[in-house]
TrEMBL record:
<keyword id="KW-0732">Signal</keyword>
<dbReference type="InterPro" id="IPR001188">
    <property type="entry name" value="Sperm_putr-bd"/>
</dbReference>
<keyword id="KW-0813">Transport</keyword>
<comment type="function">
    <text>Required for the activity of the bacterial periplasmic transport system of putrescine.</text>
</comment>
<dbReference type="Pfam" id="PF13416">
    <property type="entry name" value="SBP_bac_8"/>
</dbReference>
<keyword id="KW-0574">Periplasm</keyword>
<dbReference type="InterPro" id="IPR006059">
    <property type="entry name" value="SBP"/>
</dbReference>
<feature type="signal peptide">
    <location>
        <begin position="1"/>
        <end position="22"/>
    </location>
</feature>
<comment type="similarity">
    <text>Belongs to the bacterial solute-binding protein PotD/PotF family.</text>
</comment>
<protein>
    <recommendedName>
        <fullName>Putrescine-binding periplasmic protein</fullName>
    </recommendedName>
</protein>
Amino acid sequence: MMKRTLLALGLGIGLGASLAQAQEDVVRVYGWQGRLAPGVIEDFQKQTGIRVESATYASGEDMLAGVRYDVVFPTHFQLPALLAEKRLQPLDPARLPNLAQVNPDLLAVLSSFDENNRYAVPYLWGTVGLALNAPKVVETLGAEPEDSWSLLFDAKNSGRLAKCGIGLLDARLEAVSLLLNYKGESLAHSSKREIYQAGEDLSALRDQAASFGNASYVEALADGRLCMALAWSGHVLKASAAGAPLRFVTPKEGALIFIDTMAIPRQAEHVEAAHRFIDYLASAAANTRTARETRFYPVSRPDAPAMTQLASEHPELVVSSEQRRKFYYLEALDPARKNLVDASWSLLQR
């Protein structure tokens, strides 16, 4: 009886170890649509033996819906709310040696939203600007357009361009912030009246728009169903590289910059695998390859050899200091102001 008990215990321990190993051989990832690089993920699987199960979302609100995954990709301004709600777990720096390959300037910016960079690692960054189907815009306006938000936010221009098709992103914080910035205001310091007025203005623009959403606007621009759209930089740069007659515009009044990050939800089941996945993507080799595949900007140190090679092959993915002067970061909002933005955005859903 004793031998049988010991044998059963031995089998139980072995089975438990096998199950634990099997559980760590997968990592469930929930990322932005168009910002995961299939080739990079495939190489991670080959090198580690860890299977990646991935799903994508099209808006920040989808990511916040609370679906359980091992790695999520919150944008920088979402971090304070996630941390206040205790929805992320601290990262273990000892498991992230490639963090040393991340641009320290981006880490410094991120520390304003995640103190001491305890919960998130930069993944990619980009801007929100204007995408133009240049031939159609010139045909409609009769002249080369100025690089200005007035193309979208001045009713005289948007009214003319609506004839060839305008697209709006379903990105409430970004759209409201950009409109207020165009008016010389800051979302983080705007009054209730100013935020609601922005919602009214965007609602009127929504009535003119031929497209409202985040999934298919680039294809509509490329095939001429739209001539202008509020856009994320990487989507447009990737389509342009594939031959579409598109131009991404950084308006002179300023474009919004965002940092996508990598984080581990508090309820993650595969924490070790999640750390290995994040560390892999943080390496300069993987990060610059991700930038090549997605056309969003890399977060690697500027002096990394991989960045030098990227600059020679794809100079459009290495942003100059002159370009950076046109950018601003979207601030994290207090809950009351965030509720105001949500309420104003509801005007677009009528």
